[in-house]
Amino acid sequence: MTKPAGFHRSLAHMTGTMSGILAPRRQVSQRSKAFDLLLAGALTLFFGLFSLAQEGVAGVLGVGMLAPLVWRRTHPELVFFAVSSVAVLQWLSGANLMAGNVGLLVALYAISVYGEVKYSRIALGVGGLGVLMATARYYSSSDWRQQITMMVALGALVFGVWAIGERRRTRGLYVAQLEERAAQLERDRDREAKLAVSNERTRIAREIHDVVAHGLSIMIVQADGGLYAADASPEQAKKALATIGDTGRASLTEMRKMLGLLKQDVQPDLDPDQPRPQPGISSLPELIENVRQAGLTVDYQVTGTPRDLPALLGLTAYRIVQEGLTNTLKHAGPGARTCVELDFGREMLTVVVTDDGRGAGVAPSNDPGHGLVGMRQRASISGGTVNAGPKAGGGYEVIARLPYNLPAGGNQ
């Protein structure tokens, strides 16, 4: 006869449920297995032998409620089912309560600690039913007050054992959550450290670009000037060559220091002994003097009350001025004049670099470069802005507004 489809679904569901019960709930160490074996053996020897001496052949049931406790940690649901089944046989056979019945309490505790929550609730219900069955069988001839007293006492014992197991389960889950959270925080910290190192190396790469671009711009201008002055003014040509040499050596030294930082596996900010160039506002006069020696006329003005700036803000201002002067050398053309202005306002530093040359928009160039993008990125890190473009009437202008107070998350 063909079985209905519902029968097959029910059979499959029952098979899956039993498979889940029979499967080990957790990985148990060898030490825990040895402890479970010793505990079950000790309980079986002590209470099992006591049950045999007390009940004779019926005492075998007491042994049957103790021996399965070896697997109480790996198969708590199966152990509780087995022990409860033996207890039911004890009730049906009319055997008295015996020492081996302590196995019921141990199995109930095990399922409340190691079993699934739904099976733990079922086990509590089975324990409550067992209290009613035991009271009805073993205290049926007693006074009703004694029956109620025993029912309450046995019920409190069963519920107390289950509650202790639930509390241990909850505490274990809480500890496991704390451990997982700590592990997650450690993983997040490692990721943030790697990201910080990556960002630092990217920033150093931009520093190298600025150093090389600025140094090469000066060297190219000096080389062109020396070439034209070689015949008419040998002394001027020698001076240009000397400037080229000094600029090249300085740029090479600074670049080597930065490349040394890129070779480090640790975050450079965490090692104060690593050499790291950090120019700031105080380095601007030297920068402007080098540009003047390259043949560019530069006026330098400071208004407002100068103040000490955070390292990041000072470095940002320096690089913006450096990039502005580099662009002037590249694009402004011969005879251009440049003005660098610093205005220390109440809430922000304003950096202005202007020239009266032909402007970057008309200067011939095969490589537009990344100077303006780099300036804006630097300014945004410091919470500021950069505006750049041709001036009305000719020339080019770069205006950077950098607030003194860094935004949240800004690094110095």
UniProtKB/TrEMBL annotation:
InterPro entries, per the entry: DUF7134, HATPase_C_sf, HATPase_dom, Sensor_HK_TwoCompSys, Sig_transdc_His_kin_sub3_dim/P
Task: Please report the stretch or stretches of sequence annotated as the DUF7134 domain.
Answer: 30-171
Q: Which GO terms describe its molecular function?
A: kinase activity
Q: Which residues form the Histidine kinase/HSP90-like ATPase domain?
A: 317-404
Report whether Nucleotide-binding shows up as a keyword of the record.
Answer: yes
Query: One Pfam family for this entry, by name?
Result: HisKA_3
Q: Which UniProt keywords apply?
A: ATP-binding, Kinase, Membrane, Nucleotide-binding, Phosphoprotein, Transferase, Transmembrane, Transmembrane helix, Two-component regulatory system
Q: What is its EC number?
A: 2.7.13.3
Q: Does the keyword Transferase apply?
A: yes
Where in this chain does the record put each Signal transduction histidine kinase subgroup 3 dimerisation and phosphoacceptor domain? 200-265
Q: Where are the transmembrane segments?
A: 78-110, 122-140, 146-164
Q: What's the catalysed reaction?
A: ATP + protein L-histidine = ADP + protein N-phospho-L-histidine
Broad class of enzyme this protein falls into: transferase
Fetch the PANTHER family from UniProt: NITRATE/NITRITE SENSOR PROTEIN NARX-RELATED (PTHR24421), NITRATE_NITRITE SENSOR PROTEIN NARQ (PTHR24421:SF10)
Task: Supply the name of the protein.
Answer: histidine kinase
Record organism: Kribbella sancticallisti
